[in-house]
Fold this sequence. Notes:
Helix content is about 45%, strand content about 15%. The chain contains seven helices and seven strands; from the N terminus they run βαβαβαβαβαβααβ. It has helices spanning about 15-25, 35-50, 65-80, 105-130, 155-175, 195-200, 215-220, and strands at about 5-10, 30-35, 55-60, 85-90, 135-140, 180-185, 230-235. It has a seven-stranded parallel β-sheet with strand order 3-2-1-4-5-6-7, sandwiched between helices. The chain starts with a strand and ends with a strand.
Amino acid sequence: MKNKVILITGANKGIGKTLSLEFSKMGVNIVLLGRNEESLDSLYDEIITTTSTKPLIIKCDLSDIDNKSAKQINDEIMGVYGRLDGVIFNAAKLGKMSTIEDYEEDIWKEVFNINLHSAFIISKEILPALKAAPNGRIIFTSSGVAEVGKAFWGAYSASKFAVKGLAEILRDELDTTSNVKVFNYDPGKTRTSMRALAYPAENPQDLKEPKVLFNDYLWFFSDESQLSNQHYFKFDN
């Protein structure tokens, strides 16, 4: 993993922050993409002081990303590193727990922009770099509500259904035409701020910490995973 370059969206908190720190310990140069400058700076400083890697901060609000800003993301990565080995689409917004009848259109659009559209538009721009990598990787973050629709999960559930479809389309397009592997991963019940919003009555101490997931993400970047025909994975509780 040493000297590889991985872009992580939503890198400044939760699972994204943990992955950024753990991959950095292995010598990976992490592109830290998020919208909160203060937390990005704090994470950057932690990586710089504890590893010998070269992280890069890209401040970006994924709710209004367009082709121009996606191209700027790719250009900045290639300008600094000259390569990109993988992307982990981790950023997501829960939105609102509500019936469809009562769901506001602006919140619906924002959730879809962050959870789905940003992954689509960034993928378009970085695919040439990933194809040029020895074993490029695209990893989407899934959810249990991406498989069966549940009442009140609204835009979050619908967007995760769509992300699953996007991952399957990309896999079908890339599997026989490149070395890029596409994986969709459901991390299951994990101690994050989003989980706390969705289940406020749940005891967070009963949930696994994000660090428990790291070995699964590490496997996605392994030579062994290059031989896998499976694309959808769930954390094995």
